[in-house]
Design a protein that fits this description.
Length: 354
């Protein structure tokens, strides 16, 4: 048995002299890891982007309409349902609001329950008063805490909300929304859930009192389809095989790295170098590039994870780590398997086939 120090010294000499081709194999493995990382994390980024677009466009918001029959308290109670991000009720006021600054452009006005501003992601920095759409606030040149004239009254601007023309239902783009604590029925119940709650339509219908016309449930924005199953898209993505493939490619590289040196290794066995010492040296030499490449892969993963949200970053790091680590372990395993196939008795055949 060779002494450990001698084994380390021999491995270092082989790496330094280029016998192991560590630079070439390391660069090849790094390129393979980088390619698989870019493919898999790029696919996941596309799925999360579609998910964010679906939710931010209001496609995950359902509106149940039953004019004058919606119980505000029942609608607000939906905020307690797991998965519901916001719920609130809305009713239209019969007369439009004429602002002093826009006397020729009467604005539709609505009253809302307490949870409604969260549905619109409203920028609320003042208590009480009215919510204006961003377009209306910009047209008037006012912000939270300012006042606008409305006939003989002064209306305090409570905040503003974005309501882009991206396919969502029209009606609030130039509206004035007023908070209400009146115990009167509303016309609509809005609820936003993400991920989408499957049985939410049934719960919405429970907030409406019986009437001649059945309640109608619709999406705020139907342009992007009725539903988005991000979890299923993630499970079905083609690049889900990236980690196993990385292991196979790493194993192949490790196998080849030793296979092309089989004459040298068989000669060492013929010179009575113990196989255990030979295996230790081969693993040390392979580790010089098989462990360096995954470190580069992990650094690339950390860089790519910055393009994801903070709550997704941990999962992204884990996805990338699987690819990088399996590639490195595969290379070590491939080198060991290849070494086990080297036979001293085949020394002359290796010589003829060199």
């Amino acid at each position: 048995m060779m002494r450990a120090r001698a084994t380390w010294r021999e491995a270092a000499r082989n790496i330094w002299s280029g016998t192991t081709r560590a630079t070439g194999f390391g660069l090849t493995l790094s390129a393979l890891i980088a390619g698989l990382l870019l493919a898999d994390l790029g696919t996941v980024r596309q799925i999360t982007g579609e998910s964010e677009a679906f939710a931010s466009a209001g496609a995950a918001t359902l509106i149940m309409t039953a004019e004058g029959r919606v119980a505000g308290a029942a609608c607000e109670a939906l905020n307690a349902v797991p998965g519901v991000r916001a719920a609130g009720a809305l009713r239209a006021l019969p007369d439009p609001l004429r602002l002093t600054l826009l006397p020729q452009a009467p604005l539709p006005q609505f009253e809302f329950s307490a949870g409604f501003p969260a549905l619109l992601r409203a920028d609320v920095t003042a208590s009480g008063g009215a919510l204006l759409s961003s377009e209306t606030a910009q047209s008037l040149g006012v912000g939270p805490g300012d006042t606008v004239g409305a006939g003989e009254e002064q209306l305090i601007v409570r905040g503003s909300f974005d309501y882009p023309e991206d396919g969502r239902r029209a009606g609030l783009g130039y509206a004035v929304l007023l908070g209400s604590d009146r115990d009167a029925p509303y016309d609509e119940c809005w609820v936003d859930s993400w991920p989408q709650v499957p049985d939410l339509r049934g719960l919405l219908l429970l907030t409406a009192a019986p009437g001649e016309k059945p309640p109608v449930v619709a999406q705020l924005n139907s342009r992007l389809g009725e539903s988005f199953d991000g979890a299923q898209k993630f499970e079905d993505r083609l690049t889900r095989w990236a980690a196993p493939l990385a292991g196979v490619l790493g194993l192949s590289l490790g196998f080849i790295a030793i296979r092309i040196r089989r004459l040298e290794l068989a000669s060492a066995l013929h010179a009575r170098v113990p196989r255990a010492s030979l295996a230790t040296g081969a693993l040390l030499e392979t580790a010089s590039w098989a462990l360096t490449a995954p470190i580069i892969g992990l650094a690339l993963t950390a860089l790519l994870a910055r393009s994801f949200s903070a709550e997704d970053a941990g999962s992204i790091l884990l996805l990338g780590a699987r690819i990088a680590v399996l590639a490195g372990l595969g290379a070590l395993l491939g080198a060991l398997l290849s070494l086990l196939l080297v036979r001293e008795k085949h020394l002359f055949r290796y010589f003829r086939e060199r």
